[in-house]
Structures are given as structure tokens and as C-alpha cells.
Design goal:
CATH superfamily of the largest domain: P-loop containing nucleotide triphosphate hydrolases
Helix content: 10-25%
Number of strands: 21
Structural class: alpha+beta
Pfam families: ABC_tran, TOBE_2
CATH topology of the largest domain: Rossmann fold
Keywords: ATP-binding, Nucleotide-binding, Transport
Strand order of the largest sheet: 6-7-8-3-9-10
Largest sheet: 6 strands, mixed
CATH architecture of the largest domain: 3-Layer(aba) Sandwich
Organism: Thioclava sediminum
CATH class of the largest domain: Alpha Beta
Bound molecules: adenosine-5'-diphosphate, magnesium ion
Number of helices: 8
Radius of gyration: 25 Å
Strand content: 25-35%
Oligomer: single chain
Shape: elongated
Protein name: ABC transporter domain-containing protein
């Protein structure tokens, strides 16, 4: 459905995209995830035709080569964070507009706009003016307006960014349902890993205009392949060391400080002797018995965070963070050794620089 290969884009001396390739299948929900400035919006603008790339090898939408084709001629529509609704038109006029300019009759356009509004649960507010709507309702109108012309691909640039947390979570579910109902390809931009993991079939993680890692949400969550990806996906503990030996997927590593522990290799492209990082989530580390795999540890600090408690422990490999949802011991001596399931400790090569 969407095929982009080797896009380079520069704004003056700033390289916003360096050799990015991605593709999406029909009906796929693809999320482009990355921090501010990583090139997400530029990527969408190149796809939609709002930006002419510095160079591109291939850019196809629905099998059609769209390189050089103006934005209005491309079979895709963009939903922006700021909605970009027409303030002088009411709700249904906003939604019908795209059909009207494509030459559809007034009656036909209104009927179809009505259906699109019902799809986003705004059927009852068709005659309201835009000023009478809440932020969430405006976002729904923008969605209805975007899908009413049935583009092959819907491009969404942080569409929920302006909404408060509760509404955002509701809208995430609604968007997923809408996408499934329509069977449309969605290319969705966000800087929120939680949003990306919730909504997507596949996630592309970007860093400084390049793709750092892409895969199913669970791949990124459980098997980050670089320190940046692990950090971005919320791994609290990332330790340095070197790989001693491999046994299938399992790696034995010597951490800085000398302790030897084990974990799971995220890629096969690490060799014994190579510098690695070992990453573990705070909630996946816990106290273990003296004879079990792990690290000797002493409790140095605890922070009550309402839903859970974070504990710091000191080990030969440095300070580790543990998280408990079931309360935490008070006495310093309460923890003497910590460990983890092998599948929860991810080993990947350390990249210098
Ligand atoms: P994101 O959407 O991930 O925040 P952008 O694609 O907007 O990232 O920006 C990528 C890089 O390109 C950033 O360094 C940004 O400052 C730069 N950039 C974006 N738009 C322009 C522009 N119109 N002129 C100059 N630089 C820009
Ligand atoms: Mg952006």
C-alpha cells in the first residue's frame, strides 16, 4: 500500500531524514515513534507531498508512483494535531467539504458526511458550529473529514497530542476501532511509546532522521536492539559489560565490576569478547536466594510512588532500580541478592558514539 525507499531530506544544512525506507501493507496500523526533532513530521510531509524530498529512490501509494505528483493528487489525507478545521463552517459542512470540491452533489455529500460523523459518534452534533465543540469533538470532526473521501492511506501527525490524558486513552481505542472498521492503512506519528505500543500493528522507532529499530510492538518492548531503543522503551537499568559466551539465545556476560550474569541475546550479531549492554526493566528484577543467578545487592533507597514503590540497590555492577507493586521492605538488610528471569534481561551490542 505504501512503499518508501531511501528518502533523504534536508532543510538548508539540517538533514532531517537520512536514507529512510519504510512500507505499510493495506489495512496496517503503522506507527512512527520518536522524540521531537527525529524527523517524523518530515516523513509524513514527504509521503503526503507537502514536502519535496531532497532525494528519494521510490515512493508509491497504492501501487502508484507518486514522485512529483502534487499533494492534492495523492491518494492520502493528513490529520494534524491542531485539527485545521474551517471555523466559518459548521460540523457537517466541514466534513462534506472534501466531497463537494471533488464534484459530488450537495445531497450526496451531506449524506456521506452524516455517515462519517456517526462513525465518530458525532451524528447528533452535525449542525453545531466548530466553536461550540470540545477539543475531543473537534478531533473527531477532523477525523471524519479525513476519512469521508476514503483515501487509501490516512496520515496522522500526533492527532491526540492536544488532548488530556483520559480523553487521549479513550480516543486511542476509538481510533483503533475506526481503523479496523474502515480497513484503511494508518500511518500514525507519536512521541509516546505507550501510545505506539497500544495502537500499532508495527512500530518504526526513529532517531535523528534514521530508523533505529522497527518491528511489532512486543519486539520493541521486549527485545530492543540498541541502548537508544532500550532507553526509549523505558528500560530503567542498562548495564555495561562484555559477552563471555553464547549458548543459543542465552548469553553469559561479565558486567563492569566483575560480576558474571546471564540474559537473552536480542540479536545474533554479537560475538564473545564484544562490548555489550544488558538491559532490564525495574519491575522485572527482584530479590532472590543466595544460591540463585544474580547479583549481591544492598538496599540503599526507596521511593514511594503511589501505585508502586521504587527501590535502589547497590551492586558491583552499579546502582539498580527495582519496582514493586506490593509494598517494599524498610530495613536496609532486607535485600541481599537480586536476580531476573533470563528472558527479561536483554543483551545487545554496545555502540560507541
Ligand atoms: P519531528 O516531527 O520528529 O519532531 P521534524 O520532522 O519536524 O521532527 O524535524 C526534523 C528536523 O528538521 C528537526 O531538526 C527540525 O528542527 C528540522 N526542521 C523541520 N522543519 C523545518 C523547516 N521548515 N526548516 C528548517 N528546519 C526544519
Ligand atoms: Mg512533528
Amino acid at each position: 500500500m505504501l512503499e518508501v525507499s531511501n528518502v533523504v531530506h534536508k532543510y538548508g544544512r539540517v538533514t532531517a531524514l537520512s536514507d529512510v525506507s519504510l512500507s505499510a501493507a493495506k489495512g496496517e496500523f503503522l506507527t512512527i515513534l520518536g522524540s521531537s526533532g527525529s524527523g517524523k513530521t518530515t516523513m509524513l510531509r514527504v509521503i503526503s507531498g507537502l514536502e519535496t524530498p531532497y532525494s528519494v529512490n521510490r515512493l508509491r501509494i497504492g501501487g502508484e508512483d507518486v514522485v512529483g505528483l502534487p499533494a492534492a493528487k495523492r491518494n492520502c489525507t493528513t490529520v494534524f494535531q491542531n485539527y485545521a478545521l474551517f471555523p466559518h463552517m459548521n460540523v457537517i459542512e466541514n466534513v462534506a467539504y472534501g466531497l463537494r470540491i471533488r464534484g459530488r452533489t450537495a445531497q450526496d455529500s451531506t449524506a456521506e458526511a452524516k455517515r462519517a460523523l456517526e462513525m465518530v459518534q458525532l451524528g447528533a452534533k452535525a449542525d453545531r458550529s466548530i466553536g461550540q465543540l470540545s477539543g475531543g469533538e473537534r478531533q473527531r470532526v477532523a477525523l471524519a473529514r479525513a476519512v469521508v473521501t476514503r483515501p487509501a492511506i490516512l496520515l496522522l501527525d500526533e492527532p491526540l497530542g492536544a488532548l488530556d490524558e483520559r480523553l487521549r486513552q479513550d480516543m486511542q481505542l476509538e481510533l483503533m476501532e475506526l481503523q479496523r472498521k474502515l480497513g484503511m492503512t494508518f500511518i500514525y506519528i507519536t512521541h509516546s511509546q505507550e501510545e505506539a505500543l497500544t495502537m500499532s500493528d508495527r512500530v518504526v522507532l526513529m532517531k535523528h532522521g534514521r530508523i533505529e529499530q522497527s518491528g511489532a510492538p512486543l519486539d520493541l518492548f521486549d527485545r530492543p536492539v540498541t541502548r537508544f531503543a532500550a532507553d526509549f522503551m523505558g528500560y530503567e537499568n542498562i548495564l555495561d559489560g562484555k559477552l563471555l559466551r553464547k549458548d543459543g539465545e542465552i548469553g553469559e556476560v561479565e558486567l563492569v565490576g566483575g560480576a558474571v550474569v546471564r540474559g537473552t541475546l536480542a540479536t545474533s550479531d554479537i560475538q564473545p569478547g564484544g562490548a555489550i549492554n544488558l538491559a532490564i526493566r525495574a519491575e522485572r528484577i527482584g530479590p532472590v536466594a543466595a544460591d540463585e543467578d544474580g547479583l549481591d545487592a544492598t538496599l540503599s533507597n526507596r521511593v514511594y510512588r503511589g501505585k508502586y514503590t521504587d527501590m535502589m540497590v547497590e551492586t558491583k555492577a552499579g546502582t539498580l532500580r527495582l519496582r514493586s507493586w506490593h509494598g517494599a521492605p524498610n530495613e536496609k538488610g532486607a535485600i541481599s541478592r537480586v536476580g531476573w528471569k533470563l528472558s527479561d534481561a536483554v543483551i545487545f551490542p554496545e555502540h560507541k558514539g
